[in-house]
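TICKET: design request
STATUS: open
ATTACHED STRUCTURE:
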């Protein structure tokens, strides 16, 4: 009996020590390291414009006006799950359609048609990231091809030469991580903010 109680107390002590170390000390140390060495990332990679927080470099925004570049389609729903709410960070997710699902194929076709209507000057295949959602529904970036495919529309809306805007886009490309991992991309929110600064839309 005494051995059983000793084992029980030893287990309780170990549980208490682990709870304190892993549940309190470790999180506090990690939070301190983040705030000291990576304050921007630790606080959500927030983006400010004219002193106000307008978003995060990690979460896409639902741009629909012709003078802005648009991100990937987002299939997130509101927290109640009753209505679409693009880029809702409180309820990320996707449609989870398989690539051979007829509903998915029809949805992609509709998106292709909508893109061509909005970008009548574009020729060629529509970049896949402009007509398919990612797994989270929050992707903040698009491919370089996805950005360039929208240049004519945005240039016309902003009354600037398409060649000028194309060079502007290429100047805002984020390269591969460490020069090796991933693909070059354009952060849509950051690009649109830079666009408003450099080439404000005119009515």
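STATUS: resolved
RESOLUTION: sequence designed for all positions
ATTACHED SEQUENCE:
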């Amino acid at each position: 009996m005494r051995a059983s109680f000793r084992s029980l107390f030893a287990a309780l002590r170990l549980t208490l020590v682990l709870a304190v170390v892993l549940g309190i000390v470790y999180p506090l140390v990690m939070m301190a390291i983040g705030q000291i060495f990576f304050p921007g990332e630790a606080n959500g990679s927030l983006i400010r414009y004219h002193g106000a927080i307008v978003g995060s470099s990690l979460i896409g925004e639902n741009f629909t006006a012709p003078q802005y570049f648009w991100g990937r389609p987002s299939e997130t729903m509101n927290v109640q799950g009753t209505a679409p709410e693009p880029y809702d960070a409180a309820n990320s997710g996707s449609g989870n359609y398989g690539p051979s699902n007829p509903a998915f194929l029809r949805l992609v076709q509709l998106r292709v048609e909508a893109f061509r209507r909005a970008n009548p000057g574009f020729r060629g295949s529509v970049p896949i990231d402009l007509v398919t959602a990612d797994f989270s529904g929050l992707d903040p970036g698009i491919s370089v091809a996805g950005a360039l495919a929208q240049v004519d529309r945005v240039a016309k809306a902003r009354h600037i030469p398409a060649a000028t805007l194309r060079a502007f886009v290429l100047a805002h490309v984020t390269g591969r991580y460490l020069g090796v991992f991933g693909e070059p991309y354009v952060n849509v929110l950051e690009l649109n903010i830079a666009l408003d600064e450099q080439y404000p839309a005119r009515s």
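CLOSING REMARK: The chain has two domains: 1-43, 52-198. The mean pLDDT is 86.
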